[in-house]
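Handout, page 2. Input:
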Amino acid sequence: MKSQDQTISIAAATTPNSGKPDALQPRRRLTLGSAASVVLLYLWAAPALAQELAQSAVVPPAAQPGDAAQPASESAAGVEVAQTEVAKAEVTPGNSPAVLDEVQVTARRKTESLQKVPIAVSVINGDFLNQTGAFNVNRLKEALPSVQFYSTNPRNSALNIRGLGAPYGLTNDGIEQGVGLYIDGVYFARPAAATLDFIDVEQIEVLRGPQGTLYGKNTTAGAVNVTTKKPSFTPGSAVELSYGNYGYVQGKASLTGPLTDDIAARISFSGTQRDGFLYNVATQDDVNDLSNLGIRGQILYNVLDNLSLTFAGDWTRQRPEGYTQVVAGVAPTLRAENRQYAAIAASLNYTPPSFNAFDRLTDVGSPIQSYQDLGGGSLTADWDTGYGKFTSISAYRVWDWRPSNDRDFIGLPVNTVSAATSYQEQLSQEFRFAGDINDDLNYVVGLFGFHQVIKSNPVQTTALGSAASRWLLAGTANASNSALLDGLTQRLSVRSVFDSAALFGQLEWKLTDQIRVLPGLRLNYDRKKINYDAQVSGGQDTSNDPALRAVQLAQLPQQTYADDIDDTNVSGQITLAYNPIEDVDTYATYSRSFKTVGLNTAGVPNIPGTSNPDLSLATIKPEKVAHYEIGIKTRPFRRVTVNLAAFNTDIKDFQAQVQDNSAATSRGYLANADKVRVRGLEFDSNARFGEHVSVYAAATYTDGKYRKFTNAPLSLENTGRPRPNDVEDISGSRLPGISKFATSLGGELFTPGSFLGRAGDYFTGADFSYRSGFSSSATPSDYLNVDGYELVNARIGFRSSKGWDLYFWTRNLFDKHYYELLSPGFGGTGLYVGQPGDPRTFGVTFRAEF
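Output:
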């Protein structure tokens, strides 16, 4: 029977022949005459309910807890940093999952303790995701204090680790992600993928710090590895049904088994529906709902005894009516009184449905939708050559984004159309070879290629309405001329092409029984091209009035430009690992990393005094990252682990959003902030008390600052400050989106019993998370600060010894009011809007495996 881990934990990698009887294994083997050898990829377990729980996996029935683990296949597990394969005991009625005296991993083709792997990584298993309702990346942040995720819609999403990854609140397809998202070893380039539902997940690993010497795609802040469940030669099925308030319905199913003696398949499905958390008083309908469908299929072909191929394909469809934000307040600005919100709203006889965001009311008048389709396929080959492991991962992916937004967030016809469609295709190829040179030296080398095209589909459209003149031109003679801007439309055709190639590798050298050194190196080449063409039409005919035409183009710029840039970079890292005494392991790492050149795909300022775009700003310089980290991992008692890490990251030429000084209204674009620094401390621990109680805890302290940023955009309250003072020097200010303190704490109590005559365990669990306040604006503002908040989630139920669970759950148990983020409203009037966090939800879930 499958062990029921209900914790943040390690889940085992599945070997290509997993579950296949020995009698069916073909006795053929492919060898390699001569080859380099390799692999060292490492993994470190973090927040777990109990280390013994947290690092469990199924072993054959004959195996006993404590037996040596068998080597795992790197790509079969879909994890590029390390694989784990640890013993997992069966749960019997009246007993908790068995606990191992020593957790074993085989990341480097030899058995070793997980605690000895010198890297900061947290691992969450699929059972924990299911029982806590964490069905997408956004909900991971409650269990992992080092993770931040912000999203106003799928395209405008930012996944950050330790406060770094993507500029806060920025929508720009031309920037690279600092946190890589990988699913079964395939890199997902668009941040929208982080909003998709997890489908049949085995485990998720979150690595902190630069990842470049063991990864195909370079990332400066970390990586999120999602590993799905693999095809098995043992027939199996699983179903899960959930029902809750707000019309929440979620169904999941999977089916696996053999097709032939050498071929196994797996197909998985997930569907989620939920009513919206906001109510539109204008349409008498709820908005910001969920409507997700996803399917994933895999075929495993054991070509030879030492060669396997895995074909995988997936498709996800989302059709929500969303997403919008609600009015949260009004800030005074430096504009004249007749150009501020109160006067403008009064002149239009407008009052929003509420100034209390937690009434969850909106009156947006334009249709809103966040439709997206994301899918693709991959082929993974694993070949054990006898001299090392060769892995190839070939993948193709596509993303189709079709939104419609009301960007003024109110019921007035100001910005009536905002539809920044986007279509993306990507191709990626990774080759990796890994093995041991001798008992004291092993290495991994890899080659990675990536091609991506992102384009409007066919155009991105922005249009203004009949209230735009009064809203945007208040205080001028043109404010009363509604025809001037009514119907003014910008149609943008943009196409960007990204190509990159990399050679990477890492060694591990065992100097003594206590000291290891791990150097790594990466050579990276990038080329990026952009073609940008924004044309403006509609509104009042100003063909014979250049002055009025200039007023129109100040609101919706018209420009055309193209650029082509390439860059070559060498980066690397070195780690020293030291084991002074038993159950105490330390490490120190120094990394030099980079984020490649960026493109401005949303326009650039004009050259001062002209209508010509400043092409020098079409591309931006790469980030240069220097990262330092030390850590200690201990096991003071048999069932207790305590780990600490301290880090410091300095970034030069930080890619940020800055002010457009050439237009009469504020318009942001990408540029480089001189210097940024993020430093902090991390703690995680887990413990098991007796056979029926397990707990975990994690905490972070993160201090992120702009060390030098002299041309930041104006804060909300400084809107209207005249030139040349219409930028701010925010050197020394805190970075947005970073809570200085964040914690998570949870546990589970279980006891043997029976339900309707069926043996199993009753269990109850709770998870607490806290984040201190943070700035929700690129430039700190007194009005755009999100207050700290704490959330409590809980569950109670019965876990049968026959493979089914029934439990009741609640999220945000105490119905805490909190913001996910705050942002300025449209047009610089002082109005600001917010995205309230989810209210209390509750429901019931039934799961069964057979």
